[in-house]
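DM from R.C. (forwarded with permission)

"hey, sorry to bug you on a friday — could you get me a structure for this? deadline for the figure draft is monday and I only need the backbone to look sensible"
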Amino acid sequence: MNLPDPDARAAALLDQMTLDEQIGILSGHMPLVMKPRPEGVQKSAGWVPGLERLGIPDLHETDASLGVSAAGRRDDAATALPCGLALAASWSLDLAREAGAMAGAEARAKGFNCLLAGGVNLTREPRNGRNFEYLGEDPLLAGKLAGAAIAGVQSNHIVSTIKHFALNDQETGRMVLSADMDEAAFRESDLLAFQIAIEDGDPGSVMCAYNRFRGTYASENPYLLTDVLRGDWGYKGWVMSDWGAVHGLAAANAGLDQQSGREFDRQPFFDDPLKAAVVAGEVSTARIREMAHRILRAMIACGAVDHPVSAGEPDLAAGATVARKAAETGIVLLKNDGVLPLSGVRSIAVIGGHADLGVLSGGGSSQVIPKGSARFDPPEGSPSWSAGVIYHPDAPLAAIRARAANVAVSFDDGTDPARAAAAAADADVAIVFAVEWATEGVDTTLVLPDGQDALIAAVAAAQPRTVVVLETGNPVLTPWLDQVSAVIEAWYPGSQGGEAIAAVLFGEAEPCGRLPITFPASADQLPHAKLPGSDLPIVNARGDTEPFDIDYAEGSDAGYRWFARTGHKPLFPFGFGLSYTTFAYADLRAEGGATATVSFEVANTGARAGTEVAQVYLEAAPGRSQQRLIGWARVSLEPGESRRVTVTAEPRLLADWEADLHGFRIAGGDYRLFVGPDAASPKLRATVTVEAAELGA
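My reply, with the result:
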């Protein structure tokens, strides 16, 4: 077939397909639970039979954003990338694309042509058990990074999804809750993140969310799937369901194109029942053709048809290089009184966090389980399908010892604070590894579990030169912060996490990560001090509660915008991160016009090379006072070096959504901006005049 246009090629294929054959590609299975599993189909998240006579390949689908998920396979040959928040902490589009390309290459090498990646749900609830998979609380940062990662995945001629559309922002009650928000706020925040990512990455498929939006399930919500996605954004790919998210045939007419993992729904709606609905005139043959067209069109456009996959072995050495780079770049230095980087020490006490075994991994469908991983039973209340608490096999203890020649390095497991404190007192420096496991299916708290706060306090009381390494998938409270000398947030750092942590501790690598998420000082500072739905009883084995509503009354003021609006002082602000050097800002020049453009000097005023993430924020606009990230620049500088950087604002971040216009509008007038290293530290300020404009939907 020599037709170059994906739409024309899809149409030509459909002309040769019967109605039954078209319906045949509209639903998929989960091979992990299929009995029997068809020959040639791997254990995996999803499989959709193709049509051999027309050269339409099967869709072999695998989770997820952090690499090729094991999906029931133990000791898998796969690279675990650092978690999404670690990637977001890099603020690097180049790294996001490189990480996506690596994950896509491993998926292809393992015989998969669809990676269920692209998680871009904003952090509205910092206790959400899946925050670690996603890219933080800001729509511009998350959208740009997700778009770059998706483009990287699809550079391998496979399909990437983007998910979960939309407002799937907590795990408690995720199958029953209704998320409610004013449309303008929705368009300016969560929807804008998806819109930017789709524009930049052009994912082959959008995966709908489990939850309801304004009372209607996302899988059958015509506002989300038809009005916004297809109508306003002109999206040409297909919408697949999440596994277990379909509730009936209403989804077909609302805009859902494919039922995924049909074994998880009450019944397989998108086969015989869908055919019966067509015969009864409830679903048109034109709609069936459109659904099938979108699937075929995306598979062709992404290259999955012309570049078939076959199962083999991935290049794990190449994957390790990318994972190490991503882990190092995403580590955030939160406090340092000069103890880091480590040098001149004669003895080190390493304490807690299973640092002798590996580094912690988040749980759920995104989880990658490389060969040699250590497994512990999940805590009470975890999902019944949990693979357990997994530690990737790159032990920080071994990596520290490898860098500490002629240094006595001891290890204490941290289960006895008094014993750990004694070990710390006998050393020059104590390094405490503190962990909090998060997983799909349940939400977390802001408090380190298992008495780790008391452990840290006891160690710090015995050893003033105490360094805390956090391996968490969410913000946590730090009641011991004033007692310790240094804190680094390593997130869930992936297959090369131990090496990356040690490299930063000893100064081989520069801590250049910046927080993509605000660390609150207490739950009382949040829009919902108590997690919505957390006080409702569980009503079934799946963990559901009775349906409930969440009113996101903060609107587009999620994360740092909420803190700016309320005046609350966070524990650590969005964008924050220290370095082993220092930076200065000077000579701001700002221009208005169709958008806002600023240029300024960034100088490395310290003695080491380093990377600064210079951030540009909107403070106020005509008729509105609201903080918004409108752009940033990563600047790597040698000691004493300075560089002028230019940042141009994404125009929609200057605009408001206007319901009467059904689009974004920039109000003409003065816009007040600031430049700084984080959302709470203005260094330079300017006001520019921006022209009025209508930007469309």
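R.C.: lifesaver. The first helix runs from residue 6 to 15.
me: no worries. The chain has a mean pLDDT of 96.
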